[in-house]
């Protein structure tokens, strides 16, 4: 009997490659998301530092020009934080979409792998029957 060959092996290989590519893309997106969170955290720290400086300047006394400068900078940082949060939200939506794509490709791969297993079981059953027939023919030939 000839060696087992899965009839859809090329499709399975293609889907496995697609699955690996989708995983790498998702991983890359998550790295970018973590970088965005780090940037947001840095902006939060700067924001807090300048809010504290404004409070301290108000208590200790400072020029109106310096106080306006600090308030304006705090406003700029606040706008940057809002923009960064918007980027994070968009990246989260992209990651959710990519996760769905990966889930679908993984389902296709698993389906093909189950089909391959079933075909292998059928092949082994046929091989066992063929071997059994050969043994029976051999024994019958000797008798």
Brief synopsis:
By secondary structure, this protein is mostly helical. The protein has helices spanning 9-60, 64-142. Helix 1 (9-60) packs antiparallel against helix 2 (64-142).
Mean pLDDT: 93
Which percent bin holds the helix content?
over 70%
Largest sheet composition: none
Low-confidence stretches: none
Which fold name fills CATH's third level, the topology? Answer: Helix Hairpins
> What value does the Rg take, in angstroms?
33 Å
Bulk shape: rod-shaped
CATH architecture: Orthogonal Bundle
Distance between termini? 25 Å
Percentage beta strand: under 5%
**Using DSSP, what is the number of strands?**
0
The chain-level structural class is mainly alpha
Structure annotation, total helices: 2
The CATH class? Mainly Alpha
Explain this structure:
- By secondary structure, the protein is mainly α.
- It has a single domain (9-142), classed as Orthogonal Bundle (Helix Hairpins).
- Helices cover 92% and strands 0% of the residues.
- The chain contains two helices and no strands.
- The protein has helices at 9-60, 64-142.
- The longest helix has 79 residues, at 64-142.
- The two termini are 25 Å apart.
Topology:
Elements (H helix, E strand, L loop, with lengths): L8 H52 L3 H79 L1
Helix pairs in contact: 1-2
Using brief descriptors, characterize the structure shown:
143 residues; mainly alpha; Helix Hairpins; 92% helix
């Amino acid at each position: 009997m000839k060696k087992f060959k899965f009839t859809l092996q090329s499709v399975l290989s293609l889907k496995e490659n697609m699955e690996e590519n989708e995983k790498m893309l998702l991983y890359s997106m998550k790295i970018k998301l973590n970088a965005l969170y780090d940037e947001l955290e840095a902006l939060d720290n700067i924001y807090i530092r300048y809010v504290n400086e404004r409070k301290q300047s108000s208590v200790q006394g400072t020029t109106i020009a310096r106080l306006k400068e600090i308030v304006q900078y705090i406003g700029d940082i606040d706008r940057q934080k809002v923009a960064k949060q918007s980027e994070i939200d968009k990246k989260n939506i992209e990651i959710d979409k990519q996760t769905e794509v990966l889930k679908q490709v993984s389902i296709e791969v698993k389906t093909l792998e189950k089909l391959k297993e079933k075909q292998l079981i059928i092949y082994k059953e046929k091989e066992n029957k063929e071997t059994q027939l050969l043994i029976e023919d051999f024994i019958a030939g000797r008798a």
